[in-house]
Amino acid sequence: MWRRRPSGVGFWAAVLVAAAVLAAGTGAAAAAGAEEAYVTLLYGDEFVLGVRVLGKSIRDAGTRRDLVVLVSDGVSDYSRKLLEADGFIVKHITLLANPNQVRPTRFWGVYTKLKIFNMTNYKKVAYLDADTIVVKSIEDIFNCGKFCANLKHSERMNSGVMVVEPSETLFSNMMDKVNSLPSYTGGDQGFLNSYYADFANSRVYEPNKPVMPEPETQRLSTLYNADVGLYMLANKWMVDEKELRVIHYTLGPLKPWDWWTAWLVKPVAVWQDIRKNLEESLPGTGGGRNPHDQLVVKILFFLPFCMLLCGYYGSCFQTNKELLGIRSLCAFARQARQKYKSEEALPSYSTVGATSSSFGISNQKLYSGAHLKLPSYFGAITVLVCFISALISLAFAFIIIPRQVMPWTGLLLMYEWTFVTFFLLFGSYLRVVYTWGCSSANHVGYNNLDSSENHAGAGSQRNMSDCDTDAAFYWSGMAIIAIITLLSPTVLGITALFAKLGLMVAGGVVLASFMTYASEHLAISAFVKGQRDRNAPRGRSICFLC
Ligand SMILES: *[C@@H]1O[C@H](CO)[C@@H](O)[C@H](O)[C@H]1NC(C)=O
């Protein structure tokens, strides 16, 4: 019996000791959590996704320290709630005015970054820009000196990743000098370079060799602030990739959250992988989505199909009459389908010349100007309209697509909308050309083509379908070349930026040549058709796309 008691006591003692150890452990951890923090800054809603991904990457790498985001007035309440739901401590700050008169406009509030030196409720903070991600734990960074950063271009310090020991005296000293010290960038980075003028001579921080006493300044190696610009130069990380800690997506307008960047900058894939796994902190925000963009994407995706359907039914129930671009697309698609069903020749340019010799001849005569009078500069105007339409379509598609959608979604919508807009614009031009053809026939007192009389009766239907195959060839040719141009670097696995751009430029040249050729042919066909229909009006629907 008595033997049991001590064992019971021993057991309880063990439990107590364990509990004490645990408590001490968590207490110490909590203390560390309260003493040190990761910090980032947010000026507006555009960078929210960046901050979310950064937070996720830090948490995935493993940490018990605080994640703090300093937000200014430009950040909406929704974004603040979202970041809080993500686990950030959100602190509101007022902007520090930029004392420099000459500065890039986007630098209006960047001196605010200096406020991290005033976060005196923490012993040490690791600051990371919103366009960085942590790919491997950087907990050891908190052991480096009182001020640590990374050197970049020409011995200058980069303020994208910094370790700071906040201090009221240091901060007020900085504030005293803000107006007198020069800033080569016109922002905080330039100022800090002037403030820590001797920074380039600091020792490199080595996590495994702590220096006592703690140095004033220390340099972080490139591993802690690896610039994608560096990657783009050599198409590989010029440091040991397995040891890489922080990737910094610096390239000016190529921010990782914009969908097109993933198609240009390979390391953005790492960023997108983390983004895909973002938790649904607030409804509809999983995977870095945002409810507003989701709705816009759905509308943008289905709208062209709806237009197509409406146009299709319109063309079924309303024969001839006024033709809208979209309606004739359907009519044209339907006719093409019927033609395939009746197993006629495949659409190709040579077929057109062979089966409809009369049309071919008239086309040739038309080129030599012997038979048909084309308006002066007709070809030049057509090509110009074609390229302006293409540019407008591209710009329009680019503007209406939300910037922060996933890369594939962006590409798909871009393609869909560029083509739809181009089809509507250039289709309208062809419609104008057709009317132009009608009026010019009237005006000139144009004689019917001798040859066209031959097939006026029996040949009209055939002529119609030939014209459709022609149009199908040109339109689908443009679409296919555009797809090949866009996707060829991805399909061929080319990641080097310059090789990629070169390939796309080459594709662009091919596309441009084909568009020149196709647009002229489409326009001339439309013009000829206008003249013919004027002279031999028939109650059939007009295909103005050819
Ligand atoms: C710096 O921090 C102190 C105390 O935390 C605060 O009272 C002061 O307003 C801060 N200064 C600036 C310019 O934000």
TrEMBL record:
Name by which UniProt lists this protein: Hexosyltransferase
Biological source species: Zizania palustris
Family classification: Belongs to the glycosyltransferase 8 family.
GO molecular function per UniProt: glycosyltransferase activity
Annotated keywords: Glycosyltransferase, Manganese, Membrane, Signal, Transferase, Transmembrane, Transmembrane helix
Keyword Transmembrane helix in record: yes
EC category: transferase
Spans traversing the lipid bilayer: 295-314, 377-401, 407-426, 472-499, 505-528
One of the Pfam families matching this protein, by short name: Glyco_transf_8
Claim: Membrane is one of the keywords in the record: yes
EC number(s) per entry: 2.4.1.-
Residues in the signal sequence: 1-23
